[in-house]
Design brief:
There is one protein chain. This protein is of the alpha/beta class. It folds into two domains: 62 residues, Arc Repressor Mutant, subunit A, CATH 1.10.10; 259 residues, Rossmann fold. Helices cover 48% and strands 10% of the residues. Helix 2 packs across helix 3.
Length: 341
């Protein structure tokens, strides 16, 4: 009998060590292939020898865990995915390992986003795809496998930033359209006009209603949220000259949800900027089939919490550390999440 107990203990220990080895392999693969760290840096980050990292990466290749992407999630990420889907009622969550440098979280998230979006774009039943702007969406293109979709339509989800940059939605849509051979449609107006009255007049124009109809017909709409600091492209380049971000923050905003500034509970703040938005508002977004939010990093915790509390997000893509912080904030507040209609 004692021998049987010993065998069981040894089997359990072996299984535990195997799980730890697999976890190390996958973390090393993410850091090496996605974050592009050196083996020496990875060894220091994970607290093991460089020789062990070298062997772990070789084993990843041997087992087929690494192709263009890391094909298997970490157990800790899977646990967070389950927690966040229960907490916020999202249909699906993709949680990736957090980078050693939080400033590079968008790279890891972009890789996870590309894995999800690639499968959606390859689905012939889906023909209309909407995309926002930002570093995460731009980086996604680097990891996305091109597929011929000549019959598909790609559309910008909002008006455009007045400053041209690779992170601008026009640049992202143009590059993605070339990759897929798909038709591109643009909201050819700034993200915000100068007054609610100007927005009302613009909404009556045919080009606006036509593009808005395409946006709302999207089979997949993918975007990132912005905070209320200078980190945000929207804050730096998108606000009208007569609008001060300090006034928007004073109204309770923690960031923007596709251009609509919201508070920590996911409600649109009472500020004229939200009535100057060129694009769909929160109520319009309820009709979308699949809204994919991809963001992370320590400065996005408040806005991510607010965004998830809108009840509008169908799929979340983020990193471990950010998701843990969002869950801690949400569970500490004990807030209720509205359901998407």
């Amino acid at each position: 009998m004692a021998q049987i107990d010993l065998d069981e203990d040894e089997a359990m220990l072996a299984a535990t060590l195997a799980d730890e080895d697999r976890s190390l392999m996958l973390r090393a693969a993410w850091l090496y292939f996605i974050e592009e760290q050196t083996q020496a840096d990875i060894a220091e980050t994970l607290g093991v020898s460089r020789f062990r990292i070298n062997r772990a990466l070789a084993e990843c290749r041997r087992q087929g865990l690494v192709q263009i992407q890391v094909t298997s999630p970490l157990a800790s990420c899977l646990a967070l995915e389950q927690r966040v889907t229960r907490a916020f009622g999202v249909r699906e969550a993709i949680v990736v390992p957090s980078p050693a440098d939080p400033a590079r979280s968008h790279v890891m998230i972009a890789a996870g986003l590309a894995r999800y979006v690639g499968g959606q774009i390859a689905d012939p039943q889906k023909t209309v795809f909407g995309f926002g702007w930002g570093q995460t969406i731009k980086e996604m293109l680097r990891f996305l496998d091109p597929v011929a979709r000549n019959e598909a339509v790609i559309v910008t989800l909002l008006g455009t930033l007045p400053h041209s940059a690779e992170e601008n939605s026009i640049e992202i849509i143009a590059k993605l359209g070339r990759m897929l051979g798909a038709e591109r449609r643009y909201m050819t107006a700034p993200i915000y006009v100068d007054s609610p009255e100007a927005r009302y007049m613009l909404a009556g124009q045919h080009f606006f209603s036509s593009v808005l109809s395409t946006i709302l017909a999207s089979d997949l709409a993918c975007f990132a949220v912005g905070n209320v600091s200078d980190d945000s492209l929207l804050v730096r380049h998108g606000l009208p000259k007569n609008v001060r971000i300090d006034d928007i923050v004073a109204a309770g905003a923690v960031g923007d949800f596709l251009g609509t500034f919201i508070d920590i509970d996911g409600r649109a703040v009472d500020h004229p900027i939200n009535r100057q938005l060129v694009g769909p508002g929160l109520e319009d977004l309820r009709s979308l089939k699949s809204l994919v939010l991809a963001s992370g990093g320590p400065r996005k915790v408040d806005i991510l919490t607010g965004a998830l509390r809108t009840g509008l997000v169908d799929v979340l893509v983020s990193d471990e550390t950010t998701v843990e912080a969002v869950l801690a904030l949400h569970e500490g507040d004990g807030a209720q999440v509205p359901l998407k209609a």
